[in-house]
Design brief:
This protein is mainly α. 68% of the residues lie in helices and 0% in strands.
Length: 56
């Protein structure tokens, strides 16, 4: 929708398509992001909430 509006205003075609080869980098990014987000969560789950809030 947005690319259609910009194409009409500027006269430059903006073809946006997702193909199957886009899936591998996308899944890799999601997997790495999940691992990076899980590490601090696992470390935080090993502490008691009171101790974490005190900053000790």
């Amino acid at each position: 929708m947005l690319s259609g509006i910009l194409s009409r205003q500027s006269g430059i075609a903006l073809p946006v398509m997702f193909v199957t080869t886009d899936a591998v980098p996308l899944l890799t990014l999601v997997l790495i992001s999940g691992v990076v987000a899980t590490v601090p969560a696992l470390l935080a789950s090993r502490q008691s909430p009171a101790r974490a809030l005190r900053g000790v």
